[in-house]
Amino acid sequence: MPMSSSKIKLAATLQRSHWGFLTRINPTQWSRQMSVVAKSLKYTQHGEPQEVLQLVEDKLPDPKDNQVLVKILAAPINPADINTIQGKYPVKPKFPAVGGNECVAEIICVGDKVKGLEPGQHVIPLASGLGTWTTHAVYKEDQLLIVSKKVGLAEAATSTVNPTTAYRMLKDFVQLCPGDTVIQNGANSAVGQAVHQLCRAWGINSVGIVRDRPEIAELKQMLQCLGATEVLTETEIRTSDIFKSGKLKKPRLAFNCVGGKSATEVSRHLDNGGVLVTYGGMSREPVTVATGPLIFKDIAFRGFWMTRWSKENYSSPERSKMFKEIFELMEQGKFVAPNHEMVPLANFKDAAAAALNFKGFTGKKYILDMSI
Questions:
Q1: For the purposes of burial, counting CB atoms within 10 Å of the CB of 96, is it exposed (0-12), middle (13-18) or buried (19 or more)?
Q2: Which residues make beta-bridge pairs with 324?
Q3: Most C-beta atoms within 10 A of its C-beta, which of 35, 247, 257, 293?
Q4: 43 is catalytic
Q5: What residues pair up with 105 in beta bridges, in sequence order?
Q6: CB contact at 8 A, 298 and 157
Q7: What global pTM score does this model have?
Q8: Distance between CA 279 and CA 266 in Å, rounded?
Q9: Which of 43, 89, 279, 314 is catalytic?
Q10: Band of the pLDDT at 371, cuts 50, 70, 90?
């Protein structure tokens, strides 16, 4: 039977993509003819990740209106992700929940009302709690940000938590100038590595404090290659004259992710009117204030949570500017992902256990590789 003119017209506007989907020549109006089955790490109750996470398969619906279907390429395992699954984090997802908050994904197809995104583009999630430990997902257009394919997968996948935390802490508490000094404990953490790199890009001296360990020389060299001006152990900082000798200006800003005695020691080295920002507490010990510096130097203690900042500044120009600067540095090779290991999705239990047992020494981030 001969085709009608309308059917001939429709057939002429369709072509087969490399994904195996029928697509319109207009790339913003792709139409899917094959169902996608997503493999996701889901949990229905709080507990240890190895015990409550299950690899579940779900058939995804076609994206409609402002929805976007993506294929996840890589998704990291962050300490906050583990704490969320355990029920120890302020964010409480609705069950059943998919783990993960960060990823880099490739757009497969989009709904008919999507205007700013096209198939084939790389994107990252702008919103938290979307569930990124999955091979495929359907998100809303305004929940995604385009990332240049010049940015490496590991860099893109880990861009919305650690680099942004470092960026905001460097920008929002003290007005720093080239030649100023920042000091931080946990300097080999993912945020610590980001701080060193941003400081190098902006001409700021970055002093890092780390725990002593057998491979301390190698660790110091690695951090200095990232941009650290000086790296000292917690023992060395207690007797160092690095600031008294005039070699470096006294720090006006300090970052703490450890707590306890480590935070107290870092605060002692602040200059008059300096600020110590706490963004983590790996030791699970409270931040104690040294009375002398508090009174005679008038130092201040602040807290920072990136999730809150992102929610309050979701569509702000300042957030767009931040991502633009970070991605430009990544494209130029001036900002690299933290030390990491790509792990197949099937090995998620081993990766979760390794992330859970992180004690501040390995300095390695585990990233789920969805292509394996």
A1: middle
A2: none
A3: 257
A4: no
A5: 72, 123
A6: no
A7: 0.89
A8: 14
A9: 89
A10: confident
Q: How many residues does the chain have?
A: 372
**Mean pLDDT, residues 188-208 taken together:** 97
CB within 8 A of 31, min separation 6: which ones? 14, 21, 22, 23, 24, 109
Question: 1: Cβ–Cβ under 8 A, 6 or more apart, which residues?
Answer: none
Structural domains of the chain, with CATH: 3-158+337-369 (3.90.180.10), 162-306 (3.40.50.720)
Identify the residue whose tokens are 């002398």: 292
Confidence check: pLDDT of 207 > 80: yes
Give the per-residue pLDDT at 6. Answer: 36
Q: Report the alpha-carbon distance of residue 182 to residue 334 in Å, rounded.
A: 19
Residue 342: strand pairing partners: 367
Please say whether the dihedral angle defined by the alpha carbons of residues 268, 274, 279 and 285, taken in this order, is positive or negative.
Answer: positive
Q: Is the confidence at residue 325, as pLDDT, over 90?
A: yes
Segment among 25-34, 286-295, 330-339, 340-349 with least mean pLDDT: 25-34
Strand 205-210 relative to strand 181-185: parallel, antiparallel, unpaired?
Answer: parallel
> What is the spatial distance between Cα 308 and Cα 311, in angstroms, rounded to a whole number?
5
Instruction: Specify which residues 104 forms β-bridges with.
Output: 74
Q: What angle do CA 306, 170, 251 make, to 5 degrees?
A: 130
Tokens of 321: 């500017």
4-15 b/e with 16+ CB inside 10 Å = b?
A: eeeeeeeeeeee
Decide if pLDDT at 230 tops 60: yes
